Amino acid sequence: MSKYDIIVVGGGPGGYVAAIRAAQLGAKVALIEKDKVGGTCLNRGCIPTKAIIACTNLFEKIQGADNFGITTGPPSIDLKKVIGRKNLIVEKIVKGVEFLLEKNKVEVIRGTAEVLGSGKVEIEAQGQRQEAEGQRIILATGSSPARLPGIEFDGNKFLSSAQALDLTEIPKQINIIGGGVIGVEFATIFSALGSEVTIYEALSEILAGVDAEIVALIKRILRRRKVKILTNSKFDTSKAVEKNLICVGRVPNSAGLENIKVNNKMETSLPGIYAVGDLVSKKMLAHAAYEQGEIAAENALGNNRTFNDEFVPSAIFTSPEIACIGRVKDAKTGKFPYAALGIAQAKGEIEGFIKVVSDSSNRITGVHIIGPDATNLIGTAALALRNGFTTDELAKTFQAHPSFPEGLQEAALSALKRSIHQIN
């Protein structure tokens, strides 16, 4: 029986980060993964969708080149080449993760694992079974696309989000069932490709939990792109068209672990066993899993770190982008429009706004952005919230001119009724 200090089950964002961090701290580590390292995010989620969105965004910019004084012929897009580029990017990053694991002396075991208790794990690989023993075990088994009753993912008419990433022909019509982050991102992709897109959302609004003003604006933008949005609307197979993409959320891969719970140290109720990522996280986000993986690895080796989901930002790669962190409402709100930014006017990207939320003592409690570079701007907001900045401190932060970060400073000034470049 092979013995390790740490056994990590699952090689997604939480798992491979936990394995590398434990190895950095001197532990002998085994990582068990049945598929490719990188998990859903790298292979079937975050990275593939963003690679495709980069292509569709560029396609749309080229279509608008005449507004910049550039004359081109009508552009076309080859989805097979777009998917080919996406696959090359994913393959390159997977190899990068494998390289990091190897250089950190993490032993990667290809197979499935079952925790037997008392620090023992049974591994099945290529029809063979073996046992391994670890002083500590970190579970990072991730999640899978949720299904609708009576509908199977056939890869043709009814698609999961993973299957949609491998389409090489642009559908004339596509239904997107689910108006959450994944569904709205795919609506952005397929509307840019020229598909007739309909979103079905069972709730009263798309993008549940996102600032209401942001939702209202992105709905207007999607409708301008001829996307139909049907809220309070349940989907059934009688409404099926050429392609039907099911995006109704994700479910933890918790077979045999259904009752597992964790505390803020990522410890489970089972002695010596930790759990991270989509398996247990309230926020199924890769960057939350990264942080949890580090915390679990360090605590498994004697440290005492805690996880706080209050400071976890969200990024939505619509066009324009959406990014959020912290509370949606509080005592004070300041807002600044992109249209009032010189850089936005120069780039021809004027749609959107930046909103800063603060409490009665002016401590920043939330930042919500829709507009160009939103997913980069939210990094500054995360830093501000994590360090307890007040709106006054953010307002005093110099920003380069002309730049998008000026809008964050102006939104803070707006919360203080001191905005310079708009009427307070």
- The number of helices is 12
* Extended strand count: 19
**Mean pLDDT metric:** 96
CATH H-level superfamily of the largest domain: FAD/NAD(P)-binding domain
Name of the top-level CATH class of the largest domain: Alpha Beta
In whole angstroms, the N-to-C terminal distance is 70 Å
How many strands, what sense, and barrel or not for the largest sheet?
7 strands, mixed
Strand content: 15-25%
CATH architecture classification of the largest domain: 3-Layer(bba) Sandwich
- Rg over alpha carbons: 23 Å
* SS class: alpha/beta
Helix content: 25-40%
Query: What is the fold named in CATH at topology level of the largest domain?
Result: FAD/NAD(P)-binding domain
Overall number of domains:
3
Low-confidence stretches: none
Shape: globular
Any chance you could write out the topology, listing elements then pairs?
Blueprint: E1 2-9, H1 13-24, E2 29-33, H2 39-44, H3 46-63, H4 79-103, E3 107-110, E4 112-117, E5 120-125, E6 128-139, E7 143-145, E8 158-159, H5 161-164, E9 173-177, H6 181-193, E10 196-200, H7 212-224, E11 228-230, E12 243-246, E13 250-252, E14 273-275, H8 286-300, E15 314-316, E16 322-326, E17 332-337, H9 342-347, E18 353-358, E19 364-370, H10 374-386, H11 391-395, H12 405-415
Parallel strand pairs: 1-2, 1-6, 2-3, 6-14, 8-12, 9-10, 9-12, 10-11
Antiparallel strand pairs: 4-5, 5-6, 7-13, 15-16, 16-19, 17-18, 18-19
Helix pairs in contact: 1-8, 3-4, 3-6
